[in-house]
């Protein structure tokens, strides 16, 4: 499936040129001619990256980037006719992934876009997301709605084993094999105790769990689809 790019650019000739060039490179490009329209599309539809003009008719591209970053980590490549280094610095500080001044060669735009997409894919493989739940492998951290949840090292390993096998029924023996080597002498019923504590940390209602589901007599199932 082609990667989807949103281009927010008010110059119709430039927008058409960029759209055609990226389309020939295998991307599926959508165009918004103003900042607010672009933000509305980003809220409605999934995009793999945003190419954002800094100077827009209704709002500054920096404000678009600021609003986007409050809600999303979609990779952003900024385009601008401004030569002021301060604008580039502010854009990067607000969360833009790269910056390309106009005029530019389409090949350089394509190379920079592919680079930020590669970085985004690499980061995504280290971060698991299930609805409002995030599991950060590198930081060994768990967040719900962005709020950190406290787990022991063993509980984190157990949650990670479940999440990496989302949608699969795992027996207690399978789970103990997956977390083997963690600093705890695991035994059959201890898994239940730790799952109970994980639920207390990540479930909206631990008594009616929707993320980690018990399959009586068989084990546990981590739900793929979560809110």
Word description of this protein:
42% of the residues lie in helices and 22% in strands. It has 227 residues and is α/β, with parallel strands linked by helices. The chain folds into 2 domains: 4-125, Rossmann fold (3-Layer(aba) Sandwich); 131-222, Winged helix-like DNA-binding domain superfamily/Winged helix DNA-binding domain (Arc Repressor Mutant, subunit A). The strands form 3 sheets. A 5-stranded parallel sheet has the order 2-1-3-4-5, sandwiched between helices. A 4-stranded antiparallel sheet has the order 6-7-8-9. α2 (35-44) packs parallel to α3 (61-69), α6 crosses α8 and α7 (172-178) packs across α8 (188-202). The protein is elongated and about 65 Å long. The two termini are 25 Å apart.
